[in-house]
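Usage

Read records sequentially. Each one opens with the input sequence:
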Amino acid sequence: MLMPPSALTGHRRVRWVATQAVLVAAGVFCYFQVRGLTAAAPRVAFAHARDVLSFEQRLGIDVEPGLQAVVTVSPVLETLANWVYIWGHWPVIVGVMAWLAWHHRHVFLRLRDAMLISGSLGLVVFVSYPVAPPRLADTGLVDTVTEHSRAYRFLQPPNFVNQYAAMPSLHAGWDLLVGLSVAAAATTVAVRLLGYLLPVLMAFSVVATANHYVVDVAAGLALALVGYAGALLLERRRERRSREEVP
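and closes with the structure output:
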């Protein structure tokens, strides 16, 4: 039976949160290991990048240069875009999941399941359709993150990094899931608005920093929503089982 957070007190709550932390950490580790070990040949990834650009041009949505121009006109705006890209992803994910696990157990489980489902689907795309990001694909765009500081690229473990996993953008997709979770658990309008704003800022930043194409963002958001739908189905099944266990 799924008990509310208030019913888990003392060491039982600590033990449950610690168990979830281990499970999530294991899932993230496996995700990055698989993602890092599935890097494709650069020739294939660059060919796919050209296909993505051609597709965007046919649709008239190749707005990457224009979005980057918005931030490169100002060192402050460029720094803010870089900060959103770097600090607005994993640090925010970890912080929000810890908060939800302690205070909003059902929302945490929904977020956990949605990330696992969308992450698994994302790995399939990384393997089957590797794409070089704009910063590597000779698009004329600047890698603003590296231009600002090379530490972010250097500090990433090589076996955790797939340089050709631009499609889909789970930076954008997972921030959408986190934003929806924050909005669902929020008790104030300000926090709820922050949840809605987070994925918008990330979607803009991943394109403006030349880490993803617009199509990558759309694909990441779509996979995230598929994961969210799957998580809702799992949530309903848990609730049904919980009701059945009640004498």
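Summary fields computed downstream for this record:
- The chain has eleven helices and no strands.
- The two ends are 11 Å apart (CA to CA).
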